[in-house]
Amino acid sequence: MKKQTKIRCSGLVIAICMMAAVQCKKAAGPEADTKSGTGSEENTTNDITTWTPWIAISNTADKTIEIYRYNHTTWDATTREWSFKPTTALGYSSGAVSAMGVGVGDMRLHYVSGFSGKAESAFAIQGGRYLAIGAYIPSGSYVKGQKLWEYTFPTNQNPNNHAIELLPNGNLVVAGFGDGTASSTYGNWVRIYNTADATGASYTQVNIQGPHALLLDTIYHRLWVGAEINIGGVRHQGLFAYIIGGTRTSPTLTEDVSLRAVLPFGHPSSILADANRLMYPHDLTAEYDNDDVLIYGDHTGVYRFNKQTKAFTPTPGASHLYTGSQVRLKSASKMQGGYYVTTHAYNPTVHEYHTNKVDFFDASTGAIAFSRYVPGYTIYRARVWTHVYQ
């Protein structure tokens, strides 16, 4: 199945994947994908170095992206590698920060070809009604963090965005969650924004209920979406796979139904067995040590999703997080050859969705290895910060 799936893709996606494979080998600046670890941390996938020591967090209090090194025991202004907030000095609109609501909800980093002369790589951010792309490795007269593209939704048309993914051609994929119901006035879609259009008016849309997580997979040439569907009157949640076709200015999205993997909504009957229930998809990230696996997280914990068998297998031990009642998990990723990295509201009486720590779990045993803390309950997501796609 894997071999057949790999070749079942459009010309656009093949071009995207080839460009990503070449550009992933680049490295520049302190946040580039340089190998400075030891032992098991230095594995590679497809001859591309994917290991990185950098972790990005979304700081909801300051409405910033902040980058830290995982092995710095203190995370504060003295150890911070980089911080970003949209400002008018960097070209962003004056209302950008206020449109971000409670702060950055999602962020991605990739090499891009769509901003020639401006940036070799870019980061994308989503917060509230606000979407933006900024230069990360700038070109020409551009500086790091400078605006490449932005869009703010009208206050009366808030789609409650919950996830983004930046494509190698510079387009932006956005998941409009809505209010979590099929009748939501706004949202319930996945869009690809043509960022060659500065107005934000040019996009392709597919309708899907409650999309909450996105990931471009350049191994299977699919865009994975965590979302919901009703089957025979029964609520199901899980993963949907889409083929990206067309061109940058006129992209298309078509579901590959053969890769759809959904389960009935609810609590699993067993804590550490293949899932038979799923609740509220929240994050999707790459597994750089296995091309056939994704890291998937929802309110029933952290899973390794096998693309061939379509099984959701809990990560080992405590790294799974689920203990029989739902966990308010917000992000889950894995360092190549290293740790599972998660955030969840472990004390919801203090804050229902945010936390003051990022947890690192041993990939083999699942035991907690260490946590990193920042002041206040200001962290929503934490991501392994790498340019590389799976």
TrEMBL record:
InterPro entries named among the record's database cross-references: Gal_Oxase/kelch_b-propeller
Keyword hit for Signal: yes
Leader peptide range in chain numbering: 1-27
Name of the protein in question: Uncharacterized protein
Keywords: Signal
